[in-house]
């Protein structure tokens, strides 16, 4: 603490950021919580309905449960790319001799493209008529019978709208994990190698335990960002066909701004917030416990 | 036997990395080539084959179909204003919480940090209603306020972690010279924070430049549309799309960020790496 600080100076520095944060984030969260107990179309008077919205959401709304299940699949696909593939590539990259800097830059490129542009791009990649990139590749390797309209086939659409999100941030997470692996003391790895440890064992016994703190951060980032994923499914299919690629976020958005059912939409938003908090809590719980066991 | 196996492992590694790079980059390269392809060639022939000739017609059509310079300007205004606020407000809050300190500062920091995991969608309905009440719908501010609000937690987190490393003695020496909290902020803390500022600007700048959800919810008029929103104009009635012109527009609108990225990629990569691993 500074000796010359005064109560006034603390307020001068703290109030402007706090005010903006309250206006943009905290107050809206409280408002959503309040609105979730009302029925309101934004025009007529608000009507207090108690926990009716919650009962409707949890017991009578099939679309909600469908969207919740879809959101979990979306999460799984994103995590596969952003945590699984990126950790794999980050590891591989440490064994590459030259060109690491170029590889890092190239892998990061998709992260700077807007979701709207990415949606345009993937619309073409998934296209069936005329045949898009994926269908052409399938044709080329002799799996032409697997070709399908990826975005209008109800069995493939969910994974198809999830993959671009995983794809675009693969480089970002790879970069973070790569930096963490580089910080692993070289002496440890070399000692293990001299003892004849394979690359796999170096990874599981030295690298991974060492990067665990960064891994937890990365998991939280990837999980919470995926749970709020919205743009690409909204732009590619808008939840369709039917509800087969509807996520909680797109469902909430439609409930609010198509059906102008602000009360019920707020109930869904509250659920999304709770879902994120639970997810972060679970990650901490699981990883904490496992690190207790190993140490 | 051993050297041979090693070199095989090495080429397998290289091969896999190259394959991943292709998966990440080929779609973007294809997008760029398509933007230079004659429209008829794209529609008639194999869109993923090699173009028969190259043309700039698509770019001409892209500029006719939408006011691209306006979108770029709007994105620039929103990104610059938001980034400046995120840096300045984040630094101020971190200074109050970490350097000045006060009873309960941990609680306030916690309150800010909650924001890291709060999904932005929760703010859409309340902000829409509040904006409608005070006449802020369809303004630059309607996008800037939530963009800054939701980025502040990370910014504050990065600045507080950095401020921990500034030695106490630096402040004490300045205090003995009679510098008050304001002079110390502008004279010592701010100049020392350049690296963290770069990290904060890049981490957030990319997301803000590409923001779709706030723009899509709060902005309706052509004159205020940012790039992501403006690009949607290229979806014509009945969902028909002039693909080559659309891709030309994408290339034009990606260019500013791409240039910044390529020129400063060392600094950006350093920022992203240190932002998430130190801290």
UniProtKB/TrEMBL annotation, chain A:
CDD domains: TM_PBP2
Principal cellular location given in the protein's record: membrane
Gene Ontology CC annotations of this record: plasma membrane
Keywords: Cell membrane, Membrane, Transmembrane, Transmembrane helix, Transport
Name of a matching Pfam family: BPD_transp_1
This protein's record includes keyword Metal-binding: no
Subcellular location: Cell membrane
Membership in a protein family: Belongs to the binding-protein-dependent transport system permease family.
Name recorded for this polypeptide: ABC transporter permease
Organism: Pseudolysinimonas yzui
TrEMBL record, chain B:
CDD domains listed in its UniProt record: TM_PBP2
Listed transmembrane segments: 12-33, 71-95, 107-131, 143-163, 184-209, 243-264
Gene3D superfamilies found in the cross-reference section: MetI-like
Keyword field contains Transport: yes
Domain of life of the organism encoding this protein: Bacteria
Keyword set, alphabetical order: Cell membrane, Membrane, Transmembrane, Transmembrane helix, Transport
Domain named ABC transmembrane type-1: residues: 72-264
A GO BP annotation: transmembrane transport
Membrane topology, record value: Multi-pass membrane protein
Recorded GO CC terms: plasma membrane
Intracellular or extracellular location(s): Cell membrane
InterPro entries with a match to the protein in the record: MetI-like, MetI-like_sf
Primary residence: membrane
Keyword Zinc among UniProt keywords: no
Family classification: Belongs to the binding-protein-dependent transport system permease family.
Protein name: ABC transporter permease
Organism per entry: Pseudolysinimonas yzui
Lineage, top ranks: Bacteria, Bacillati, Actinomycetota, Actinomycetes, Micrococcales
